[in-house]
Amino acid sequence: MLIATNNRGHVVKRPSKQAMDTMLADLRQGDHMILERQDEERDGDWYIQVLLRDDNTYQLEYRDGVPAEHYQTLTASQEKACQALRDWAAGEPDWQEGFVWNNIGAMFAAPVVKATDLPTT
Question: How many Å apart are CA 104 and CA 108, to the nearest integer?
């Protein structure tokens, strides 16, 4: 099931294309929305999110199940951001095309603790 939420607490289950488009169009600078795919059969987090940055660019991020598969891109085009949301929601195989995605998974990895970092007793 798809669930769309925004930072103001608005939640839409099984959002239509129009609902997704409206939520994106209603973003103000600093606002974000998340479109999450919830499936009891699949482990992990599956989502795409959009942040309208202070410079009026759209920061898109998506995660494919695990923190290591977390990617980010920027676009100045609201229409490109909208199309990415629609295509991701529809499960289109090439929805990422037209963007340069950077893997930011390392930002979400658990810190590595070395034996030398542990307190001695």
Answer: 8
**Could you give the dihedral angle defined by the CA atoms of residues 111, 114, 118 and 121, in that order, rounded to the nearest 10 degrees?**
160
- The token pair at 108 is 């979400």
The whole model's pTM is what? 0.83
Kindly report, residue by residue over 96-117, the tens digit of the pLDDT: 999 999 998 877 665 555 655 5
What are the tens digits of pLDDT across the range 56-68?
999 999 999 888 8
Number of C-beta neighbours around residue 39 at 10 A: 10
C-beta of residue 38 within 8 angstroms of C-beta of residue 3:
yes
Instruction: Give the C-alpha distances (Å, rounded to integers) separating 79 from 25, 29, 59, 82, 107.
Output: 10, 17, 13, 5, 28
CA atoms within 13 A on the CB side of 113: 4
Beta strands in 7-82 (DSSP E): 11-13, 32-37, 45-52, 58-65, 70-75
Phi then psi for 11, rounded to 5 degrees? -125, 135
